[in-house]
Structure prediction request, 1132 residues.
Amino acid sequence: MNYTVTHRTAYRYRGRVALCHNEAMLMPRETAWQFVPECRIEIEPRPALSAERTDFFGNRVLYFAIQDIHQTLTVTVTSQVTVAPRPLTPDLPSPPWEEVVQLIREMPELNAMEARQFTLESTFIRPGDELANYALPSFTPGRPLLEAAFDLTRRIFAEFTYDPHFSTIATPLTQVLEERRGVCQDFAHLAIACLRSLGLAARYVSGYLETLPPPGAERLIGADASHAWLAVFIPGLGWVDLDPTNDCMPGERHVTLAWGRDYADVAPLKGVMMGGGAHKLDVSVDVAPQPR
Amino acid sequence: MSEAQAKAFPVGELLADYPLPTDGYDELLTPGGELRPAWSELLPALAAMGAEELTQRYDEAQRLLRENGVTFNAHEDSHGSQRAWTVDPIPLPIDGDEWAEIEAGLIQRSRLFERLLADLYGPRTVLRRGILPPELVHAHAGFLHAAWQSLPAGRRWLVFHGVTLARGADGRWLALADHAQAPSGAGYALENRITLARSMPTLYRDAPLRRLASFLETERVTLAKLPARPPDKPNVVLLTPGPGSQAYFEHAYLANYLSLSLVQGGDLVVRDGRVWLKTLGGLKAVDVILRRVTDAWCDPLELRGDSVLGVPGLLAAVRNGGVALANALGVAAVENPGLMPFLPALCRDLLGEELLLPSVASWWCGHALEREYVLANLGGLLVHQLGLEPRLIDGSRLGEEGRAALAARILARPTLYVAQQRIRPATAPVWDHGRLVAQPITLRAFTVAEDDGYRAMPGALAWVSQDGRNTGRGGIAKDVWVLAPAPQPHVSLLRQAHGPVVVTRDGDDLPSRVADNLFWLGRYGERYDARARLLREALTRLLEQGPEAEDNGCLPDLLVALDLELGEVEGGPRGRFLALRRVFLAEFDERDTDGLRDIFDGMLRNGRAVRDHLGDDSWRVLNRLRQSLAELPSPPSTMAGRKALEEHLTLLAAFFGLCNETMPHHYGWRFLDIGRFVERVLNTVALLELAFVKAHRPGVALWEVVLATTDNLTAYRRRYRSALHPAAILDLLLLDEDNPRSVGYQLRRLARQIQRLPKPPGSRYRSAEERLILQAQTTLALANIEALADSARDACEGRASEELAHLLAELHAPLFELSEAVMHGHFSHAETPRQLIEML
Prediction:
């Protein structure tokens, strides 16, 4: 599929901001199945300085600083993205999950070594018994990893309520688990934490999902949103994406932005400012399919 | 010790109780009781001094340390809770040849870590080639993803490196820990050396030991050369977490010794991809930061978002090549205790050399064999838990259950655990009330980058520690002597000029924050003075009156002056007297907010923040004041309270006198002075208001208090030789511009200081503070003196003195605003940076 993704973030501050430093992770990375022929980023007011780099995980990061006094900040990113179908289905054969726990630790193969860092705790993810216990019904002895992981995300989809008013970035996973509600971010974090609690490697993926209008209705522009899911490392298959919020394996309709250990590694727009006071945030995302 | 041994080296009483080493290594004696060669000259020299002399020298050294404020304490305040650092008068001598081996090992270790850092934050070949397990690197919070590829190839990661060393039972030196983020201790080592050399001049003058100063000179040169394209006169600053930091003394000391500006995160700002220092004269570019803030706290944009110690955008500036950090961000990765078992292999791989300096035996539980060993020997090991909440667990302190729980945790997440052998460090003689005792010793050694390699400090900081761990706070420190073939010339950076000096006079490169602290140092100091004077009058009257007095004279007015309340009182005159005494003495109470101790804390806090701008003598006076307050019981007796106040007034006068005599009369001093006189003029106006406008009991008794409080009673009597007359008092305290206690004088002084403050370039109009002081001066100049005299007479006869009340109010208003105007116009409002999104 071809998409034009437009992501606009606007901050309006109550007070005046004298100086701000920001990092944007809003430019989609290229992958084996995703091609990004064009990506334009417009920042208002004009930054005095901006510099793009590739971070440790291979994501595109734009640093920029605004040094003139301002009261609004608008960042608009427009990307052309081509997403190819991925040849992965939940019923592909994979090794038993216990074997993978061993394999990851011992495989000298390069990508397994890279995967090992994704078995550890991170800012938002503290593996623990409680999480392992939640995962275990899916991880019966000898069950192939992909099947088990897919079952885990399916259970999260079935047992949890999508509730945009329940959680914030700071809501701890234990509370999400207890209340059985949250948003895509929470579900991705939860699945990752479950997998890591078992000794498996899992990472957090940020991106977008094309939303289809109800049959007969017009597509609403700007009504889409940022999305998040996860990927699990399976020897032989590599990193396999899973979307617990939509009970599916991401395919052509999932546009990947960036990945990392958890949300903290891939926050779309970070900033530190001097002054400003309270602010109002306005975000709009539009994932528009383009004719081929 | 046997008679024969005592004869072999006639050191008599010193060694009377010194034990023969049985199962460990001792620095002084061999197991056979022979003196080790390094001590062959030192011990007889010490013995020749004799126990009494040594005790005196010891006391002298402690006094010097105390007065210089050498402490490791985090929250030093007037409450006396600081833990002093004591220095042992017995140095630890290390033979020159033996040191050469240690030195080679230290230098190699620094080279190895530099290569390792460049690899971990670059191509990561040691992970790819399986020499180091990736999860070991990632399990340690010191590895910063944000620092990856932040330095171009060839730039230094590790400029300073500290290594904790101890000698094991077999006599070999072992590395116990590495310090790279903010390796403190070199300054303390230098201070210990200087202190001991001052208290035992003969011993130190003749000793063949290697001097430390050249090491610090190398630090200075290295820092100046650190930028990719070093400017002619690079601006190097020392970034400290601030006076709350345990090692703040060292930061101030090093900044002074190396002639660097001592700055805090809020003093710096990143603009245009560079780092700038906010000064009175505007922004001044910073080329190099000697960093004593630990990695994670340095940049709230990319690292810990809740840090207020760092500088937002610092990493971006580093990547941009706009600033060089010593050490670079991310170096904490080599503080990972789990690296130790891998160092021999890493050394062969990265340097092609065998590792010279062994580390303490360590096991990473990510490997099966090691894990089994650790699980079987938990009771004898120290276990480091890595990860986001690192901690150190002493296996020997755990019971059966605790060990089982730990074992379960290790099995669940083995990669997070590293175990270390517990060691009992070698013992060395330590001075203990007139004799030598054997105590276990740990060393902190230092290296600094130099050209292509490293150079080790020819000496170290040694301290007494039972298990070789770094307690890091207080305790007994020792000077380490690295022996040289012959006495070495004494050099100090403090007396050396570095190349041609650029003469600068008026420093508008003073950090704004420093100006702010000096201003408040002046205000708090003067506030203490004013309060102490009023309280002294109150205590004097309490002593005169006695508990049965029917009439408490002007004590109720003094209560008002001090802003105190008596509350309900029962029990007639006696009850009233006791209540008054209790309320006045409560001023010495620790819990009293706005009491004397609270005000002094404010003074000390601001003083500490500008430690590098105050002379050593002023600092000593401030320390004396702190000690005097700390030693005072709360509450003290009336007599003791008054005596202490007398002493404090003298010390304050000495402090500000020394500031006036020793601080260059530039911007810094001007702000101190403005702070003092803003406070003083406000207090004087308030006092006149009390005496002539608001008094419960106007009259001679109260006027006497006013004159005594302003130290003008003598002046008045000399001038008028008569009974107190209100018009004369008013003239003396309000109008007489030659009297430093008069409002007129204070306004003139403030006006002069304010005129000379830096102004924004091109400003054509009077600044807010200039307008305010002009307003106050004009009000006073236009006052109707005749009417004032009448007004004062009214006051004398108990009528309302409207004219005077009006004038004092007119004076108060602009002066009250003045403080705010000065702060607003000149100090960086260290506004806390805020996050766009709060993560946690």
Notes: Confidence is low (pLDDT under 50) at residues 1-9, 72-82, 495-506 of chain B. The first strand of chain B starts at residue 85 and ends at 87. Residues 330 and 663 of chain B are 39 Å apart (CA to CA).
